[in-house]
Amino acid sequence: MSYDTEHVRNAGNGPTMITGLPTFTELLTNTNLADLYTATRQSSGLTAPELIERVDVSKKTVYEYLHKLERAGLVVETENSGGARVYEAEDFELTLTIRRIEVSITPEIVAVMARVDEYPVVNRVCDEHGFVTFALAHDLINAHSEGDVTIRQIAGLADLSDGTAYDLVEALYEIQELGDTDSSPTTFTPDEVANDDLASDLTDE
Length: 205
Known about the structure:
- It is a single chain.
- A hairpin with a 5-residue loop joins strand 1 (about 75-80) and strand 2 (about 85-90).
- This protein is mainly α.
- The chain is globular, with a radius of gyration of 19 Å.
- It has helices spanning about 20-25, 30-40, 50-55, 60-70, 105-115, 120-130, 130-145, 150-160, 160-175, 195-205, and strands spanning about 75-80, 85-90, 95-100, 100-105.
- The protein has two domains: about 10-90, Arc Repressor Mutant, subunit A (Orthogonal Bundle); about 115-205.
- Residues about 180-205 have low confidence and may be disordered.
- The longest helix has 15 residues, at about 130-145.
């Protein structure tokens, strides 16, 4: 049976016990943990030895992290057709509301955080502008890949310099394989074609 309360919805349909809530936020700061979760999610049904080959941590750490992710309800252990123990990642959305601003942590955000060592601009935006700004820019960059906003608009709406916005677009295009694989920010749109009405619409939402 599913039921809703002020703080819990669909409780009858989800994991019966989640005991590792700090793990959700650790996914934003521990790149190795984020990498393991992302690898499990992107290639479901992997065994622990297969995961060890995919991530840059020790065998012991992989098992520790898998246990931590299991306790948080983020990974489940099952068996494949051959009887081997395999791991599958669960999708999730953790939404925080502070001063009426809502920001969500999702697997897509975690996948970016798993690569921050390769793309310092992500850390720079988070450190200098905060996680809300990064999450906003992340979503605007996805809209950019669909042709809905320009880099100038991303910079204006997220209060970033044009150069930082461009670097972030380039990083997320590579991490998330957005847009045409033959071009990354050759998708850059010159300033003079920026659509001010669209920027206003996005700000009003």
